[in-house]
């Protein structure tokens, strides 16, 4: 079943490329026809009937030149192929980022739990000291352990650029959202400039 879906998908992709190239050829042919009409006008006298007919044909081609769109969303031409590749690549990158984001979230949570366990250990040492005689060896050992945990408390960083904690998840979401907004703005600007051309 998957093999049939893959074959069908590949066939649709080839058909789409063929349709895009046919649209481009029709557009180019329309432009060439207009240029040919203007060039042929030079072979006839200024007020001759064939020259007037060629001029009318050139105007007709200009007014009704072939233009193919996808439901008036965008013009279909050769650059559409590059747009499709660009969009597919962007989606692939987004999917890869989401897959690695899941792993990153797990790492961040583990780092946060290690820091939390260090803080709990320190608090537990101080709390347990209350149960022992002030001069007992166990109380002194608990005090030393609390000092060691305080001095060497676990802290995880990303190459010393920033500390990894629960807030890092929100920072990642914020950066991803900003990145998405920038991509949407660039894409809409490109679409507007393509329509103007």
Automatic annotation (TrEMBL):
Note the superkingdom of the native organism: Eukaryota
- Cellular localisation: Cell membrane
Q: Name one GO biological process term.
A: chemosensory behavior
An annotated GO cellular component of this protein is:
plasma membrane
Q: Which InterPro entries match?
A: 7TM_chemorcpt (IPR013604)
Q: Which Pfam families match?
A: 7tm_7
**Alphabetical UniProt keywords:** Cell membrane, Membrane, Receptor, Transducer, Transmembrane, Transmembrane helix
Q: Look up and give the membrane topology term.
A: Multi-pass membrane protein
Extract the PANTHER family matched here: GUSTATORY RECEPTOR 8A-RELATED, INVERTEBRATE GUSTATORY RECEPTOR
Q: Which named protein is this?
A: Gustatory receptor
**UniProt source species:** Aromia moschata
Q: What is the lineage of its organism?
A: Eukaryota, Metazoa, Ecdysozoa, Arthropoda, Hexapoda
């Amino acid at each position: 079943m998957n093999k049939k879906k893959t074959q069908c998908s590949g066939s649709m992709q080839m058909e789409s490329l063929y349709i895009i190239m046919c649209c481009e050829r029709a557009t180019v042919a329309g432009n060439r026809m207009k240029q040919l009409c203007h060039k042929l006008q030079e072979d006839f006298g200024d007020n001759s009937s064939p020259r007037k007919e060629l001029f009318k044909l050139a105007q007709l081609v200009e007014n009704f030149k072939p233009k193919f769109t996808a439901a008036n969303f965008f013009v279909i031409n050769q650059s559409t192929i590059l747009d499709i590749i660009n969009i597919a690549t962007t989606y692939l990158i987004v999917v890869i980022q989401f897959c690695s984001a899941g792993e990153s979230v797990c790492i961040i949570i583990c780092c946060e739990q290690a820091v939390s366990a260090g803080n709990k250990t320190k608090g537990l040492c101080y709390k347990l000291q209350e149960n022992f005689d002030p001069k007992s060896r166990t109380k002194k050992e608990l005090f030393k352990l609390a000092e060691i945990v305080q001095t060497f408390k676990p802290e995880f960083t990303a190459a010393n650029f920033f500390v990894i904690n629960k807030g890092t998840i929100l920072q990642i979401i914020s950066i991803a959202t900003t990145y998405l907004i920038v991509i949407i703005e660039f894409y809409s600007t490109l679409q507007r400039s393509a329509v103007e051309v």
